[in-house]
């Protein structure tokens, strides 16, 4: 897709904007080559594409710094991809707790995301277990 975007942008004299919201080297375990080789390959591929782009969008200042340190020279703008919590302020908490059997005074934790190795859910699970042992009125 990226190569096609570059070709079409060149043909029609249009800019290419690369949204860098995935740390590609953290996906190296999905490739059928040794992880050390695939990590370097993915970083170089992403940096090369970013440098062919007119502009790069990063989700945080820390990702912008990583991209710069890896060699991205193109302009990088930070556009956070957080959740607009205001969009959820009108939910019916009482009904949700009742439907799920959660006491009204319970502290509720949750996770919203993909179930994937790079999300480090083993660490999250361990942290949640430790927290719940100390705070008995917690639901996850």
- Topology as a string of helices (H) and strands (E): HEHEHEHEHE
- Give the termini distance in whole angstroms: 39 Å
Average predicted local confidence, pLDDT: 89
Number of contiguous helices: 5
Q: What does the main sheet amount to? A: 3 strands, parallel
Task: Estimate what percentage of residues fall within beta strands.
Answer: 5-15%
Q: Roughly what percent helix?
A: 40-55%
Q: Please give the number of β-strands.
A: 5
Helix vs. strand class:
mainly alpha
> Nearest-angstrom radius of gyration?
21 Å
Sequence of strands across the biggest β-sheet = 1-2-3
Uncertain regions spanning at least 5 consecutive residues: none
Shape: elongated
Any key phrases for this structure?
140 residues; mainly alpha; 3-stranded parallel beta sheet; two-stranded parallel sheet; 5 helices
Give a verbal description of the structure.
It is a single chain. With 140 residues, the chain is mainly alpha-helical. It is built from 5 helices and 5 strands. The strands form 2 sheets. The chain has a 3-stranded parallel beta sheet. The chain has a two-stranded parallel sheet with strand order 4-5. Strand 4, helix 5 and strand 5 form a beta-alpha-beta unit. The longest helix is centred in the N-terminal third of the chain and has 18 residues, at 35-52.
